[in-house]
Amino acid sequence: MTKSYKHLDAITALFVAVLLISNIASTKIVDFGLFTFDGGTLLFPLSYIFGDVLTEVYGYQRSRKVIWLGFFSALLMSFTLTIVGALPPAADWSHQAAYEQILGLTPRIVAASLIAYFAGAFSNSWILAKLKVFTRGKWLWSRTIVSTLVGQILDTGIFILISFTGVVPNSLLLTLIISNYVFKCGVEILFTPVTYRLTNWLKQQEQEDYYDTETNFNPFGLRS
């Protein structure tokens, strides 16, 4: 009998919502203090926090299902926006150019996000799960930070290069990668106390603290 969880559905929904909103917000490049990055960066670090919580509490197998759900949700969003953009606008609707200028980038951004997300999310979850077994569940801060440092460099580098090569000057690409990476990792580190409280609370609520000692870590695997 499959175990039932109280909060897994809510965390899954928030994870997917963060991913989709970040993809749309990424169409704008913003200046945020010392940082220059795409707008989705403001929210996207939360997806790694949710990813850490999912793997830490529920294990890699369930985290894998959520990662794939986010993947296909983003793909559906991209497909829908592309079809809507290609359809002829109503005669009295004069915003086609604005739609194409803002959301016209979205399919490319989502394609970049899907590739980057696949590499980053699965590496983050894999490292976290492996380190949990290696550390015997101790030093959560080290697991979340190390997994984020690796996952985010893959995610950020792949995303920026695919999304903005040829769109922004090459001199800006490196600035975007560094700014995104430093900001995202910084958010993860600053939110470590929140991650601790949330994971501890969920472990008590769900009566679960999963260790991936015999897990099949193939991202395409269907079984543990």
List the helices and strands and how they pair.
Blueprint: H1 8-25, E1 29-32, E2 35-38, H2 45-58, H3 60-86, H4 96-102, H5 106-134, H6 140-164, H7 170-190, H8 192-206
Antiparallel strand pairs: 1-2
Helix pairs in contact: 1-2, 1-3, 2-3, 2-5, 2-7, 2-8, 3-5, 5-6, 6-7
In brief, what are we looking at here?
By secondary structure, this protein is mostly helical.
Beta-strand percentage?
under 5%
What is the mean pLDDT?
A: 88
Number of strands: 2
Q: What is the CATH third-level topology name?
A: Arp2/3 complex 21 kDa subunit ARPC3
**Shape category:** globular
Helix content: 55-70%
- What value does the Rg take, in angstroms? 18 Å
| Low-pLDDT regions | none
| Number of domains as seen in the coordinates | 1
**Main sheet properties:** 2 strands, antiparallel
* Number of discrete helical segments: 8
One letter per element, helices H and strands E, the order comes to HEEHHHHHHH
**Architecture, CATH level 2?**
Orthogonal Bundle
What gap, in angstroms, lies between the N and C termini? Answer: 15 Å
Structural class, by secondary structure, is: mainly alpha
CATH class: Mainly Alpha
Widest beta sheet: strand line-up: 1-2
Polypeptide structure, described:
- By secondary structure, this protein is mainly alpha-helical.
- The protein has one domain: Arp2/3 complex 21 kDa subunit ARPC3 (Orthogonal Bundle).
- Helix content is 70%, strand content 4%.
- The protein is built from eight helices and two strands, in the order αββααααααα.
- A two-stranded antiparallel sheet has the order 1-2.
- Strand 1 and strand 2 form a beta hairpin.
- The radius of gyration is 18 Å and the shape is globular.
- The two termini are 15 Å apart.
- The model has no long low-confidence stretch (mean pLDDT 88).
